[in-house]
Fold:
Amino acid sequence: MRLAGKTAIITGAAGGIGAATVRRFCEEGSQVVLVDIDADALKSVMAEIERDHAKAQLKALALDMGVEDSSKAIVDATLSQFGSIDIVVNNAGIRSYEAMIDAKAETWQKILSTNLLSYAFLSREALPALRRSKGNIVNVSSTHAVNPRAGMGQYDVAKAGILSLTRTLAFEEAPHQVRVNAVCPGLTLTPFHVRRFASQGKSEQDLRAEKVDHNLQRRWADPREVAHPILWLASDEASFVTAATLMVDGGTRV
Ligand SMILES: NC(=O)c1ccc[n+]([C@@H]2O[C@H](COP(=O)([O-])OP(=O)(O)OC[C@H]3O[C@@H](n4cnc5c(N)ncnc54)[C@H](O)[C@@H]3O)[C@@H](O)[C@H]2O)c1
Structure:
């Protein structure tokens, strides 16, 4: 019960990595506020977790993280329900597939507001409570923040921005004993990818069996393999870890 008595906010909680993280946090005794724009997916993730963890204390908020006001609403709702905030996991994310030569302003704005600014705004709104609890923030970036590739530049730029945001916040908040860290997942087999490859005729089983070329372990990660390091960074076991970037990518080299 490494998070007994703690309260965590997790964004993108209805997705693969988010839902796996909510589960791990519940298993370790945390109260969790789940935030996602997809109200139906959020409802079904809540129902599954409540079925498996009868004692879980959860609150679901269907909100768009791409809108600045959502962050204050989340913090207010968390404080009124649970009274404190110990952990923020910024995880919500979207993808786009435009080469730089074709990159539209509208896509840039959408990616930056969802994948980067939402992390900055939720952190800003939660920091007064995190300073009181001496809590911490875990930001979910991507291996592609540091491993370049072609075709997803807007996403990769936003993910690189998250690493910079993480380090600045860690420096600014260290005097208040708030830790801030980032994880960089590599290929993780989440419902997003299952849906994406289904449209190309590949099943989840095909993906699990596939040999991945660009990581040392030559496979996809399971979402729980990303949730474990997030949990560790958020726990007191990582009390001397701040401003860190933890690669959770099977040794990706592209
Ligand atoms: N799966 C991977 O291979 C992989 C690799 C590297 C990084 N990541 C990152 O991990 C995080 C989680 O990814 P995932 O694979 O679980 O993705 P996912 O698509 O399964 O989950 C993302 C969740 O974020 C939610 N979301 C999207 N826009 C939102 C918004 N505006 N407001 C609130 N919620 C919103 C979605 O509804 C979804 O439930 C993302 O930040 C992603 O970029 C994933």
User: Anything to note?
Assistant: Residues 11-12, 14-18, 36-38, 41, 64-66, 91-94, 114, 140, 142, 185, 187-188, 190-193 surround nicotinamide-adenine-dinucleotide (CB under 6 Å).
